[in-house]
TrEMBL record, chains A, B:
Limits of the HTH merR-type domain: 4-74
Protein name: HTH merR-type domain-containing protein
Molecular-function annotations in GO: DNA binding; DNA-binding transcription factor activity
InterPro entries reported for this sequence: DNA-bd_dom_put_sf, MerR-type_HTH_dom, MerR_fam
Length: 148, 148
DNA sequence: CTAGGAGCTAGAGTGCGATCTAGGTCAAGC
DNA sequence: GCTTGACCTAGATCGCACTCTAGCTCCTAG
C-alpha cells in the first residue's frame, strides 16, 4: 500500500518537477528525509504524494516556503500543537482572502477599460475615443493621444 | 495644471518608491522619458501619476513588466492600434480570472482544514483527530501522527 | 556661504523559488 | 557485458522585479 514511487513518478502525479521535489526535501518541507531504496534513490509513499499535493496548493496560493516548512515541522512534531497549526492556516487564509479581493478590484478596472475599447471598436468609432472628453478610465490614453 | 512633481512627490502619491519609479522609466513603462527640470531632475505631470497608478494596478494583479511596456508603447504610438491594446487587456483579464478561481479553490481547502482543527480545538477533542479514521483532508496529518 | 536633504546615473546586489550543471551511480533490456 | 535513461549530490545559475550603493549635483533654508 505504500507503493514506493520514484521521484519521476511523484513528479508526474504532483506536477512538481524532480528539481523542485529535491529542493522541497532539502528545504525541510517534507517532514524528514524521504526514505531511500537500496541504491540510494528516493522511495516516496502515498503519504508523501498527498502532502506534496497539499504543498503545491499552499505554494500556488502564495504561502511562502518558510511557512510550509513551519507547518510541516508542527505536523511531524506530532499531536499537541494543533492550535499553532490552526493559527498558521488562519493567517494564510486572511492573506488569500485579501489577495482575492485586490485581484477582483483590479479586474474590475481592467474590465471597464476593455469594455470601452471593445464597444468603440465594435461600433467602428475607436478613433472618437481621443477627440471629445474621454471617459475617466481612459484619461491617460486620451492625453497621450493628444501628444505628451 | 501639469503640476511638475518631483520623484519624491510622485512616490508618495503612487506608493511606488523612487527606485521603482526610475526603474519603470528605464524599462520603458512610461511612454517616453519623463521631462526634466533645468537641473536635470524629473518633473512628472498629472498624466504620469495617473499612468503610474494604473501600472501599479497592472503589476499588482500579476501583469509582467514586459506586457506593461508593450501596452505603453501602443498607447504612445497613438490612435489606430486600439484592437491590439484590447487584446492585451483581454488576455490579462483571462489570466486574472483564472488566478482568482485558483485562489478561491485553494482557499476552500484551507478553510476546510482550518474548520476541522478549530471545531476539535473548541470541543477540546483535538487529540481525537488522530485516533479514529481521520477526515480525508487531514489524512496527511493523521498518518504523520501515527509515525511515518 | 554653507550644510543638508533630495535628486542624478550607472551599475551591483537582493530575495524568492526554483531550475540547471557537472560528474558521477544504478538498473532494466538487449 | 553494455547501453541507455533515470537517479544521485553539491553547488551554480536563473528570472523577475525591484532595491541599494557610490559618487556626484542641485537647491533651499539659515
Amino acid at each position: 500500500m505504500d507503493e514506493d514511487l520514484t521521484i519521476g513518478q511523484v513528479s508526474e502525479r504532483t506536477g512538481l518537477g524532480v528539481h523542485a521535489l529535491r529542493y522541497y526535501e532539502r528545504e525541510g518541507l517534507l517532514m524528514g528525509p524521504v526514505p531511500r531504496s537500496a541504491g540510494g534513490r528516493r522511495a516516496y509513499g502515498r503519504l508523501d504524494v498527498e502532502w506534496l499535493v497539499l504543498c503545491n496548493r499552499f505554494r500556488s496560493c502564495g504561502m511562502p516556503v518558510a511557512d510550509i516548512r513551519r507547518y510541516a515541522s508542527l505536523v511531524s512534531a506530532g499531536p499537541g500543537n494543533e492550535a499553532e497549526r490552526l493559527e498558521l492556516l488562519r493567517e494564510h487564509e486572511v492573506r488569500v482572502r485579501a489577495e482575492i479581493e485586490q485581484l477582483s478590484e483590479n479586474l474590475a478596472v481592467i474590465e471597464s477599460k476593455a469594455r470601452l475599447y471593445s464597444d468603440h471598436l465594435e461600433a467602428g468609432t475607436a478613433s472618437d475615443l481621443w477627440t471629445g472628453q474621454a471617459p475617466s478610465c481612459l484619461a491617460v490614453e486620451a492625453l497621450a493621444a493628444r501628444g505628451r
